[in-house]
Design goal:
Chain lengths: 304, 488
Amino acid sequence: MSGTRRRFLRQALGALPLLPWARAQTLGRRSLYFTVEEGDRLVTGLGEGQFRVYEDGQPVPFRLLEPEKPVLMTVLAEYSQASGLYLNDILVAARELMDAAPEGNWYSLATYSQELQIVRDFTRMKGEILASFQELGQPFWGEVNTYDAVFEILEKLEFLPGRKVIALIGSGLNTLSRQTMGDVQRKAEAAELNIFVLGAGTLLRGQYEPYMDAMSRMNLLQAEAFLNMLAKKTGGQAFFPRFETAYRDIARTVFTMLDSQYRLEYESRAKPDRRFHRLRVEAWDPRDEKKRYTVRVREGWRWS
Amino acid sequence: MEKANRLRQGMAVLLCISLSAGPAAAQRAPAPLAPEVRKAFDDALRKSYNDLFEEAPRLEFSQAQIEAMREILENRQKNCTAEFRRRAEDHAKDLRKEQESLRAATARIDDAERKQRHCRIQNLRALESQARVLAEHAIPVAYENRKAKLELIEKWPEELKKVREEIAAGRHVNRKWGDVKDIGFRELVPDQEKDIKIGQETVREMKMAGLMPPEVDNPVVKKYVTNLAQRVAKHSDMRVPLNITVLNSKEVNAFALPGGFLFIQRGLLEAAENEAQLAGVIAHEIAHVTGRHGHRLMKRATISSIIYQAAQVAALILTGGAATIGTYYALQYGFYGLGLVLSLDLLGVSREMELEADQLGVQYAWNAGFDPNGFIHFFDKMATREGYVNGLSWFRTHPPFYARMVQSKREIMYLPPREGLVVNSTEFDEMKRELKKVTEQAEQEEKDRPSLLAPVQGCPAPEKIEFKPGDPIEKLCPEPAAASSGRR
């Protein structure tokens, strides 16, 4: 099948309405978690009057609510033989993340190589996450099926109520996944959660990139693009530190961002279709309406 | 001729095999014991320690029969453990095979086929982990307990005579820490207060590491436990202030850190049947503080020459085996290159310290006006419930070995008689009522706990090995009928 025909078929299918049983969200109520930023500063304390929300370009009525507590955070870490050269990055990132993690939330740990493995189910004792991580033996598999792992963890989290966050620690490289990048993107667009990425292997990449062939460089670019896409689609952020020591600040930043997030809810007018519905949230200074802030919010959403 | 030679060679090989295997095989085989004797042993070994203390002097087993039974127990443990290790290995092999096959086929199978394979992997994982837990924990704990009871049957009658003689001759007051009338005025180990700083730092570190369960938020429970512990501490040799924390965790555990930091877990309060039992366990933990066992462990651990880390090592060993905390610290040491994953045997001091804590604990509970038998009763109840290993952390590093039971019993017999020792109180019952609410709330929270481990949709529930707390170990490994033949 040619590329044009395939694209046409996909568009045609996308225009079809979903069958009722295929929809996870039977209500059009959407919940958004986002941060308001001014340069490097997180802006907190804004009221409902300082926001405007647009769905598919149309303003929609909304309610500003208290963020749900506790947060359900899943640490999803790459753990494969192929990660050997930057495994230390992954371990340091996990340790710093758990050191910075506040008490009271639910934390879980999943790793992936050939397949996703739930290493520690949700616990309130964050120390158990690190202990479980350190108990992992040598990685068994050589594959890094990142797309499958992200897809599966999104699927698992989809059924859990409450405020959900994924802290993805990995390179973004992908070997033999069944899911494509497009599948994962659509899944992320449908998921009501934030993904924060703690990139691993960036230092190594900087060192070796000049000696790589074009294909390898392309793979690395694609890996980074994939991780950036996840963060962008879900209203999170991706970090690619060049030094191990940066993970501490990144971990703190992640939790400060979570702490400063706003939550709003609105009734979507979108029909249950397969389209992507664009979102835009505007925020401004209460003293000067012309002074607009940057809002870190998911790009949009689609029915799952 | 050639045929005869071959026959001769064959005979020689057979003879060699039978000569080399013969004695070893005879050693491995369980010694024969008449079925009625074996049954009598089995019945006795299922009894509680307290009952055995009473009954052992009346039991009439010969030394040869006891030896034969010990061998039988050893063999049963070996066979039962081997059987479940083998099962775990088989499941692990099947699991790997299934995963390899999935890996090879992953690109060409459809979703239905994939789901079926996921279900099989899920089931094999569950079976493997159950078999490992049984082989490495439940079976050894159950048989160690049986062997301790057999030792009690063997040695207690003689020991009892000695104890009675010593009491009659008044020699018992000369034993180590025999000056029980001077509790609070004697000095076991000087400088208890020097442990406070190290204790504080260890507590801070444990909290920071995120390994401390949340505290129980019920004023009645907290007040009761605090009062009880303070009462015991007041009647002990403790010279540092006692800090009590009640942790909301279902583990049957309590642990003391150097400097008087005592942690009681909810599971322990649930498991204690009366005030004397709880006081006994608290007194035991307080004895670790007064005996400065943490400090002594640190001195032994000076090979690390890093005092702070040594403090954590001490915390690990004296936590009463809070598994998660222990694992964490052990791993920390392994991980950061200290290479000092200490085992109790390696230090060779924990056993001695446990015995000392048992002796002092019994004295403190008695001195505070509680029935010191409570400690043995509690130990008994927990240890006799074979297979009750899940969550029983206290027994992971407080094994029910014979010497401990006898030490405690002997100490109780040595104590001066005292009237009106408390077994229970209305406050204890009230605490239990409040605790029920705390437990219900915790159970509800556990039920509501989010989970990523929901079984794969549409799979049958993973198979379970049928073994519940309180079940006799024979349920797991039934004794082969052939083994009961022979007489002695």
